[in-house]
Amino acid sequence: MNLPQALYAAIHWADGDLARAIGRLSLRDLFIGVEEHDDLSRTFDALEFFRVYLYLRLTDEAETDVAKNLDDPEFRDRLNVTETVSQPTLNRLGDRLTERQMRYFDRVVAQVLAAIEDSRYADQFDELPSPDTEERKPPYIKKLSRELRAEVFRHLSFDRDDSIKFKRDFLLRIFVSAAIHDIHMNQACENMELKSWIGEGNSVDPSNIRHQLLKFDPATVTRMFRRANGALFDIAFEHEYFDDTNEVAIDSTDWGWYGQGDASRDIQKTKPQRNFYYSWQFTTLALVGTNTPMTMRAVPTRADTDKGTLVRRLLRYAAQVTSFNRAYLDSGFYTTDAVRALESTGTEFIIQAPDRGQKIEGLQRLAVAKESEVEAVPHGLGGIDDEKHWLFAVKSQKRSRLRQGEPDDPTDDWIIFYTNIPLDDDDIDSLELATDFRNRWGVETSYRKLKQDFLAQSGSPRLATRMFYFKFAILMYNMWTVANVLGAEEQDYDLSSENFVKANRFTRAFEDDEVTLDLTDPPETLDSCWFPQGTSH
Q1: pLDDT band at 405 (very low <50, low <70, confident <90, very high)
Q2: What is the DSSP string of 162-222?
Q3: Where is the Transposase IS4-like domain (predicted)?
């Protein structure tokens, strides 16, 4: 007897009492390998975890009601579990299963519900499955992904002709599949053909997708993703994601290129410590100081890009999305042009300065000699009045942790910042400013995650194609962010400890969804709401 058969028999034995039926099942015999899953929960052992999960999948009770039931010792005795858990914990049980386990329990639940459809117990269980899988009630994360796809993917237009028989939603989910598995588009097409709901003989031709990308120029890519992200910002705004005053970060991130450096004028030399000589460079604008960060803009840049013009463009864009009073910038923006652009907007700023220059090296030596926690001196970059701006040195805990033993040069442990915040003000604490900079949600870590979980592989030397892939990765990252915001709000979940849904679980809901959406085109006036029309990239 398999698990669905045993559970169906137990429901009859328990006269429709689902908790008692699940509690009496010998899961150790019916579910092979259950002992291998003791790490699924800190509250339940593996057997209890699967009992509670089965109950959640089959009952028509909401998670809040199940959590209340678990507070009752008599209910726990019937279900054969020992501990009670909160509703947010119940919401996340499914996130801890592998895709293979999820598919297994999908089949178990479908078979059990189908078996009891004509029995006297049918009205005690959740919505019974239809033979048409599109009418089945989807898991919460899959439902959330559909809602976001409907709002966001419609802004990404493909000029499809008769040679392409798949809908836009499906084509875009191939990009998601490529990102999940860190593969190229042709491999992702082959993977998607294996989905059971594709249908026999329906091949996905990667050349069609590559042809679509060849139709895009940089300006078109920029406009599409500006609109798509704008739709996400609208949703985030409606759910009070933005504070009255926010902080932003401007950073440079690279995407490695393993071909020849002369393949495109947009391919740049990269930092010597990387495992690649060349890369595509993007300057990003992100909202900081929140448990769920969003990247608002990504601009491809070259070594000769004017930093002042770039900073003005990004801050002007940020002002269209939300109000902000401070900007954090990496050392690539320690230039006179960038600083003058920041000054022109009246924005407070903190820039990490490079470890070079006579005054910077002198400040580092002074800090070492005095063994102080922080040292600051007035300094105006490139002829700017010294009385307005400051350099300050703080000992870097990160550099100390990463190194074994003492440094060759004691100044190596000191990091330098440049700011227009008046450090001679008694209310200003330089150490707090350094902490604020370090705590700007870990920009480097977030972009590593973006490239690891959301960015597909590409060998294209075309700027527009590279922009599409990189901006699509940012869009997916932002969709994941908004999914966390919506899920936390709807399920009363605290995001300060961890995300509501893991990135891999969220993207899997895209790839494995048997439902392909009919995406409606957005109204022509969308740009006028948040973002002006433009062709710059």
Answers
A1: low
A2: TT--S-HHHHHHHHHHHHHHT--HHHHHHHHHTSTTT-TT----HHHHHHHHHT--HHHHH
A3: 247-455
CA–CA dist 55, 38 (Å, integer): 19
- As a whole number of angstroms, the distance between CA 130 and CA 184 comes to 36
316 part of a folded domain: yes
Does residue 408 sit within a domain? yes
Q: What is the DSSP code string of 79-108?
A: HT------HHHHHTGGGGS-HHHHHHHHHH
* Domain encompassing residue 423: 239-452
Share of the chain above pLDDT 90, in %: 30
Whether residue 255 is contained in a domain is answered as yes
Residues 97 and 70 in one domain: yes
Which residues lie across from 284 on neighbouring strands? 251, 298
Packing angle, helices 3-13 and 99-116, rounded to 10: 40
DSSP designation for 393 = E
Domain annotation covers residue 535: no
Are 179 and 309 in the same domain?
A: no
Instruction: Tally the domains of the chain.
Output: 3
pTM score, two decimals?
0.71
Structure tokens at 399: 């550099």
